[in-house]
Specification:
With 110 residues, the protein is mostly beta strands. It is built from 1 helix and 8 strands. Strands 1-2-3-4-7-8 form a 6-stranded antiparallel sheet, covered by helices on one side. Strands 5-6 form a two-stranded antiparallel ribbon.
């Protein structure tokens, strides 16, 4: 990957962003990458919640949570280390920042 160290964990969503389902959270050792991904999301409406100041090699600043469209990383609620590695790679690799969406998954204003 990028040589950085990451901590990841899966727990039930207690904040109701993903309707009580399991959530994968990933944090880099330097805490610049901090992201959440619901393991059970509607097909074609997947999003990642970005909490840290960096995402897709871009500084996104601090502040309120931001939600961005993303591909599906987990086939069902059974996450594997390979799924996590793919998710981390996508979150940190250089590339365009995807379309931002709001809590109701409509396109958010820039």
């Amino acid at each position: 990957m990028d040589g950085a160290r990451y901590l990841w964990w899966v727990v039930p969503d207690l904040e109701d962003d993903f309707c009580g389902t399991l959530v994968l959270t990933v944090a880099s050792a330097d805490r610049k990458v901090l992201v959440r991904y619901g393991l059970v999301q509607s097909q074609g409406r997947e999003y990642v919640i970005v909490l840290g100041p960096r995402f897709r090699s871009h500084p996104v600043g601090r502040g309120p949570w931001r939600r961005f469209r993303c591909p599906r990383f987990v086939a069902d609620a059974a996450v594997t280390p390979r799924d996590v590695a793919r998710f981390i790679r996508w979150c940190v690799e250089p590339g365009e920042v995807p379309e931002q969406v709001d809590y109701y998954w409509t396109i958010a204003s820039p």
